[in-house]
Amino acid sequence: MILGLSVPIFTMLHVVLSLAGIVAGLVAVFALASNKLSGLTGFFLITTALTDITGFLFPFHGITPAIILGILSMVALATAAIALYGGKAAGAWRGTYVIGASLALYFNVFVLFAQLFAKVPALKAIAPTQSSPVFGVTELAVLAAFIVLAIRSFRGFRGYRLG
Fold first, then answer.
1. Residues spanned by the domain of 24
2. What's the structural domain count of the chain?
3. CB proximity list for 40: less than 8 A, separation 6 or greater
4. pTM reported for the whole predicted model
5. Is 76 helix (H, G, I), strand (E, B) or coil?
């Protein structure tokens, strides 16, 4: 039991939060390229933070790669939230927000692909381990796409304008 929920139910909650954060994050980060803040920005930040927090509650022994990634994600989210709500994404805070939000979203998508390769039989067959070349190439492609997205968002987003 975790927070009074069975492990399968808690896992489902964690997955739903993660997927909601990814969808909202994609909308939010793509909107930046058009110099807008999506109405889903706050939802993205909250659901992604809740994904990280619930991830820390799973039973584990010692520090795992997932825990390290969760900590890095929380740092990126906190930085993005401070830049957006404290700094109003003005001046240097603009870049800080775009990079923090993009990085937090990337971490969530990275885990999504890792889970897909671990759980979907067809993907597991072509990449049975995370050291498989297909898995590495896929994660590298995801990273490249996020770098392009972050650069595009940074160039497009000029400041705090909800739209």
1. 7-156
2. 1
3. 24, 27, 28
4. 0.90
5. helix
